What does this fold into?
Amino acid sequence: MIIIWGGNPARRLSRHAVHPRCERQGARLVVIGPLFDATAAKADQWVPIRPATDAALAMAMINVILQEGLYDKSYIINHTVGPFLVRNDSKLFLREGGKHAVWDEQAKESRSVKRFSIRRFGGRFNAEGSLCKTAFELLAERTASYTPEKAEEITGVPAETTRNLAREYAGANRQPSECTTGWRGPS
It folds into this structure.
């Protein structure tokens, strides 16, 4: 699945030139945007959205992915800032020795990213005298109120479309996905 969100790269290109993986790997092409433009015309699905409401749709998609557990915990722990600790008071990453800190589950203490044994990617901790949460926990909290139904009121995208899009993008069918975002210029 390939999502082109807020862009129109197909002004004068074929569907396969829009994204070569569409042809090579049989990827499904989805376009999210308010205009039915040249790219949307070449897509398998066009998701019309009210202008300037993209963030609400993204938050609702993240909500579905988190609520349904459609994420790769190992990837989040090893390749994202998800396990990094964020201070409640300043909202900044906790740092130790110039490096970002994570919660070491085995040692039951915060440690720099380079000195960890088993990272925890969700939770709340008292680290070095500061109350902290992981970045993943903050994302989960922030997106919790963005249900697909709430997003529908804001974006005009049906709740079921949001759910299906999130599930497919998250790889419920265990296929790779990609999302390309960009500024939508004149069609």
Observations:
- The CA atoms of residues 17 and 55 lie 28 Å apart.
- Residues 73-141 form one domain.
- The chain has two domains: 2-49+157-181, 73-141.
